[in-house]
Every structure is written in structure tokens, then in C-alpha cells.
Amino acid sequence: MLTPSKRILSITAAGCDCYLAAGSRLVLEARFVPGEGEVFAAFARSRRSSIFRVLSDQIEEDFRQDTVPFLRGAARTRLLDRKTGQIYRDSPYHAIASLGRQADGRRDEHVQMLGLTNVEGLNEWLAPLSAAGARVAGVFSPPVAAPNLLRWLKARTGSPPRRMLLVSVNRSGLRQTFIDNGVARFSRLAAIAHDEGDDFATACLTEVNKTQNYLVGLRLLPRDETLPALILVPPGEEAAWSRPGLLVDALDAIFLDLAVARRCVGLKRVEALEATGVAADEEAQFADTLWVQVIARARPRLNFAPGWLRETYRLWQARVAVWAAGSLVLLAGIGWGMERLAESENLVGQSARLRTETVRNNISYERTKRGFPPLPAPPEQLKASVTSFESINARAVAPAALLSEVGQALEKALDFRLLRLEWQQGDADPAQAATPGTAGVPAQRFEWVTLHGMAGKNAGDADARVNTDIALRTAELLRAVRGSTVVIVRAPLDLTPRGRIAGSAVPESPAARLASDDNPNVEIRVARRVGS
């Protein structure tokens, strides 16, 4: 389906030849003469699965140059279709090529229009081909295929110049094509009588001289310019064609043997079926098979085929595109499925290894558990105890942060002598009543430090009122601790539970002074909520 056979129809005034293209080999399958439309239609129906390319080599051709406004996209297409429709009203076989834009002014676009005007001669073969449902890729002519031929002959003749004349001897006559910048600007098919005893080379080169003079008259070629010419001569006749004096001085000719040209385009052998009644050496004398191979090897850029003729071919292209896209999707799906299958097998293997490891670990655990000494409590109770311990441990708070901030605050309290401190934590603020969290609301965690110390350097340095001021200043400094609540639990001067004033100015004896120094007279508590 993707690589159907390729057949080339060579249409001339003498009839229609069908060639089967098989790489470097051409096979002449059938030859039809005018009036054999029914036979040709049956032949086309039997080979409608092939891809057909049509080569038209007839006299009726038209070449025109025109100027159109410069447009792009769909607007340009509509303009050119309307232009060619006006010029070639009676022929649907036309094409158009761009020659560039003007250098000044509105910079309009120069276009070259080409048309095949022998509609009856083409429809006699193309209409049955279309009715048979054959896939016609395009209709071409030697002038539009000439740039491809020059590209393949470049290895033998060098890069083609900007302007040149290409000459070949076909079965229909002497084909002469003037090529300017890769576009066929003019082509002429001259019928040359070839009677025995006539100098065929001289007659052909005389026509070439006339063509050069005609191009100068059309102003396609400057009068004082030498025109390069590539002349494809029949095999073995290069000496007869290259004799001096046959061409005018305005032509700079290169003669190339037709057999060499066939090898350059990849044509090694030409065969003819017995049903055609054509000898292989007969076809070797003309360049028709050369042009057929050029068309078979690469489709030219310009195409004369109208839309109705290429409809079946375009439908086939669409089917091939859909089939190719479906194949790509299928291959992608197969690849994705194979990848998922490999991943699934990998997961199955991993699962099997994990199950084996689990069984091995359970056996090792049971073996280890049997080696444990007997416990007074069952494993479930031990597990619950460990869980409770972990919960309690998670709620524990380190005292380092609070003690560090308290120490930094006490560095400024020079008159306060710290004797000892106590750090605690709990679920309630010690400065308030112990009220655990209500139902459904967890109690807040607090930590606090109780500072036991002396106000003043010695117990007898000042009276109780001065010591009280020192305790108040120390408490004020401790309030700098972040998020803390500071409470003076015991002051140097305080009321006892019986209503008496505790505290004295100076102890009466050294023993009393020593006892007072060992016992703190100030207690300050710094508390804060955990996480503040």
C-alpha cells in the first residue's frame, strides 16, 4: 500500500507509451496509437493500483511572462488562478512559476505562465485514466523537468549557468528549451525529417541556430551575449555533431552522448515487452527514455495536472497518511504496553522479594523472641508502657533556653546574690490556680524557675526597705525574659501569716548574721508557656 508500482505515460502526437519504472530499469509495457481509447481504458483499469506520472511531449505549448501585484497566501493563489483561467480558458493544463519581484516602483511580481494547449490530444488518454480511478500524481513536460535533469548532469558538465539552452533529440522531434535561473522561459519542439543520406546533425544544429536568433528577437536573450548550450546527441554520433562551423558564434555548445546522460540520471537498462513490437536499440536512439527516467526519479516542481485528475491520488495520499498515523499510534501503544509490562514484571519481582524478606524477618523475630528471658508483663502491656513513655518524653522541655535567658537578665542585677534555683515544668501556670484543660481541650504546658537569693551583698548591708527595692529591681530585670511572668514569692520585708512584719535591718550577732547569709531572704519565680 505504501510503495505501489510506478508507471510513466509518455504522450506524444504519435500516441501513448506506458513505462514501468523499477529503479535503474525501464520496461516499455504497452504502446497505444490514437483511436485505441477503449484498449487503453482496459489497460488503465488493470493497473489502477499504480502511481501514474504523465510526460507530455507535444508541439502545442505556451510560454508567457506577466506582472501581477505582490501578494501572499490564499490571496495570491486566487489571483494566479484567475489570471491563468483568463489566459488558458480552453485548457485546464497550466502552471505558473515566480520570477522574482521588480527592483523599484510597486515591486510587483514577475511570473512565468506555462500551458499545454493540445487539450484533445491529452484528454484522449487522461480522461480514460481518470475514469478508471487511476492515481495520477501529475502531468509534466520536458521543459519543467529540465532543471532536474541539469542537476543530475552537473557531475558531468559542471554547474549549469544562469541562462542556457538544452537540446535533445526525441521521437517527436528536436526539443530545445531555454532555461533562465532554473525556470523554463521558452521551449520549442521542431520536427526534423530524417531521410537516409541526409545530414541529420546539420539539420538539427540549423534549428538550434534559428532558436538562438528567435530568443534574441523575443528579448529573452541580450544580442551580444553568448548562450551556453548543452546538446544531448544520439549514442556514438558526438563527432558528427561537434564538427566546427555548424553553430553560430553566439552559441557555446557542450555535446554530451545520450548514453552517458542516461547513466548520470541512474538509467542502466531499457527493456520492451514482446507485445509492444519495439526493439530496445530503437528506443536507445532517442531521449524519450531519458526524460521518462527524470520524471520517474523525481517529480518536478511545476505540475500541469488539474484538480479533477489528481483527486484519486490525493485520496490515496490521505489514506496513506491516516494508515501511517495509525501505525505510529499502534507502535507507540505497543511500546508503551511493553514498557508497562516490563515495569509490572519488575514490581511483581520486587513484591516476591519483599514477601520473602518478610517471612525471613518474622522467622528471625520469633527466634529472637524465644531467646528473651521471661517477663512479668505481657508484650502488649510493655508496648503500651513504651508508647506512654514516648508521649511523655515528647512533651518534655529542655531547661537550657529559659535558664540562658534568666542568666543574661541576672548579669545586670549586681545587688542580688543567687544562692540556688529550681526549674520545673507542668500543665498550669504556677502563678495562677492549677486549672487543667477543660473537657476536650488539652492543658497548656508551662515551665518555671524559682530563684532563691539575697538582696544585697551581705545580710546586714542595708535595712529591709533597701533590700525590698533590690528585689523589685531584680524582678523588673527578669521581666525581659521573652514571654515570661515574674512573681516575687518572698520579699525581704513581708507579712507573715499572723500579720507580723518579717525582716530586720541588721542582725544582732555574728551568729545571727551567718544564719541569715545561708538562708535566702528573696524568692522570685519566672514562668512562661512552652513554645512562647
The whole-number mean of residue pLDDT values reads: 86
> How many β-strands, per DSSP?
20
What count of structural domains?
3
**Helix proportion of residues, in percent?**
40-55%
Structural class label: alpha/beta
Biggest β-sheet description:
6 strands, mixed
Radius of gyration: 55 Å
The coarse silhouette is elongated
Strand order of the largest sheet: 8-4-1-2-3-14
Distance between the termini: 80 Å
Count of helical regions? 15
**What percent of residues are in strands?**
25-35%
Q: List segments where confidence is low: pLDDT < 50 over at least 5 consecutive residues.
A: 433-441, 504-515
Brief descriptors of the model:
single chain, 532 residues, alpha/beta, 3 domains, 6-stranded mixed β-sheet, 5-stranded mixed β-sheet, 15 helices, 20 strands, elongated
Please specify the SSE layout and strand pairing.
Layout: E1 6-12, E2 15-22, E3 25-32, H1 37-46, E4 51-56, E5 61-68, H2 73-87, E6 94-101, E7 109-116, H3 119-131, E8 135-140, H4 142-152, H5 154-157, E9 163-169, E10 174-180, E11 183-190, H6 200-217, E12 227-233, H7 238-241, E13 251-257, H8 258-264, E14 269-272, H9 280-284, H10 288-297, H11 307-370, H12 379-395, H13 400-410, E15 416-426, E16 446-455, H14 464-478, E17 484-490, E18 494-495, E19 501-502, H15 510-518, E20 522-529
Parallel strand pairs: 1-4, 3-14, 4-8, 9-12, 12-13
Antiparallel strand pairs: 1-2, 2-3, 5-7, 6-7, 9-10, 10-11, 15-16, 16-20, 17-20, 18-19
Helix pairs in contact: 1-3
